[in-house]
Amino acid sequence: MLGNFKYSNPTKLYFGGDSLNNLKEELAGYGKNVQLVYGGGSIKKNGIYDQVVAVLKECGKEIFEDGGVMPNPTVEKLAEGCQIARDNQVDFILAVGGGSVCDYSKAVSVSAYCEDDPWEKYYIRFEDVTCKTIPVGCVLTMVGTGSEMNGGAVITNHKQKLKIGHVFGDNVFPKFSILNPKFTYSLPKYQMVSGCFDIMSHILEQYFSGEDDNTSDYIAEGLLRSLITSSKAAVKNPEDYEARSNIMWTATWALNTLIAMGKTTDWEVHMLGQAVGAHTDATHGMTLSAVSIPYYKYIMADGLQKFKRYAVNVWNVNPAGKTDEQIALEGLDCMESYMKEIGLVMNISEFGVTKDMIESVADSTLVMEGGYRVLTHEDIVNVLTASLS
Ligand code: NZQ
Ligand code: ZN
């Protein structure tokens, strides 16, 4: 393992079909005023809303509703949430939903009492939190982002055509998260597989960096193997508890900082995907799937040994009699077949991106320096152009 690092994760997890039973005890530790954050209404259809509200009432909480959080939450919605938090002096924010709801709740937590413009402070200048924060807890209903056990909060600014994530520190991580795999059964297939690819991408963003022999990479390979098996099973049978629970647990460990230890990490796929998302408002995981194969083929030669290892250890490519390049490429071909098999979006044209938008998308793409190649503007244009079809 390279470098010196600290590892801790303050989020307490409750996992399993009975995990909502722990909400009452957790809520007891916080004040009376609870901001109940949720999305566009899925939790009202599948009954999760009623279950959560029943617990809140049992605990004698005053509920301040903050619904309508959209996928890819916006700066405008963030301002609305901050107003609700301040006006009602909320003591606790309960996020019931997917990554968008969890991210938004963390963003409200750090922005409600921010003296500055939160977008400018956190998302443009990447400054630390200096104001009072509001504690957040999550009941997760969509799997993929890892937001339930990390400090990430991604916000979209459509006017500026920017979608940016700030990774906040330990004090902003959810205090607890409730992970009931059954809560994900009602997800449409499009969202489910998009979440699966988000998980895969999180793991790969951390895996494809460094030349050393690192325990984090072995953990990453195990998580990937579990994800591939379980995602195929869940596509066949969405109510396969074993598969859904494995996917849920893998998602959490894919992005709760563990497998980044001792690594520089890449994240360029996310930068490309977020730029596409800022222009199209497309579903996060699908923006990643649409650019991944072109990106990895583009940088494969720069990290050849790792791509070879990926092919053999994750995709069971038989290396006998093949060159390193052939092995690495066969791994990416297996990945591409798997992606098509589970029904992922494989090109950015599907979101409405056209050739004449490429320059603008490239301008919004942040350049990362921890992977196998630092992309130039021309490289980004090339990868995005290859992602058109
Ligand atoms: O809004 P509702 O009606 O609830 O519907 C949602 C939404 O339309 C639906 N959904 C969620 N749970 C459901 C359900 N539908 C039926 N049954 C259920 N049980 O799914 C749709 C997508 O939800 P969303 O929360 O947007 O998805 P996801 O979890 O993928 O979150 C995406 C956001 O997270 C950010 C993304 O950029 C994006 O803004 N990310 C956050 C990260 C982090 N915190 O570390 C990292 C990620 O890379 C990602 O960037
Ligand atoms: Zn992601």
The tally of domains stands at 2
The CATH superfamily name of the largest domain is Dehydroquinate synthase-like - alpha domain
**Rg, alpha carbons:** 20 Å
CATH level 1 class label of the largest domain: Mainly Alpha
CATH fold-level topology of the largest domain: Dehydroquinate synthase-like, alpha domain
Task: Decide which structural class fits the backbone.
Answer: alpha/beta
Number of helices: 15
**Percent helix range:** 40-55%
As laid out across the biggest beta sheet, the strand order is 1-8-5-4-2-3
List the ligand species.
Answer: 5,6-dihydroxy-NADP, zinc ion
Largest sheet: 6 strands, parallel
Shape: globular
H and E string: EHEHHEHEHHEEEEHHHHHHHHH
- What oligomeric state best describes the polypeptide chains here? single chain
Amino- and carboxy-terminal Cα gap: 39 Å
The CATH architecture of the largest domain would be Up-down Bundle
How large is the share of residues in beta strands?
Answer: 5-15%
Overall pLDDT: 97
Can you walk through the features of this model?
The protein is of the alpha/beta class. The chain has two domains: 12-183, Rossmann fold (3-Layer(aba) Sandwich), CATH 3.40.50.1970; 189-386, Dehydroquinate synthase-like, alpha domain (Up-down Bundle). The chain is 47% helix and 11% strand. The protein contains 15 helices and eight strands. The strands form two sheets. It has a six-stranded parallel β-sheet, sandwiched between helices. The chain has a two-stranded antiparallel sheet with strand order 6-7. A hairpin with a 4-residue loop joins strand 6 (152-157) and strand 7. Helix 4 (75-87) crosses helix 5 (99-111) and helix 11 runs antiparallel to helix 13. The radius of gyration is 20 Å and the shape is globular. The two termini are 39 Å apart. Residues 145, 198, 201-202, 270, 284 line the site of zinc ion. The site of 5,6-dihydroxy-NADP has 35 residues, from helix 2, helix 5, strand 6, helix 7 and helix 11.
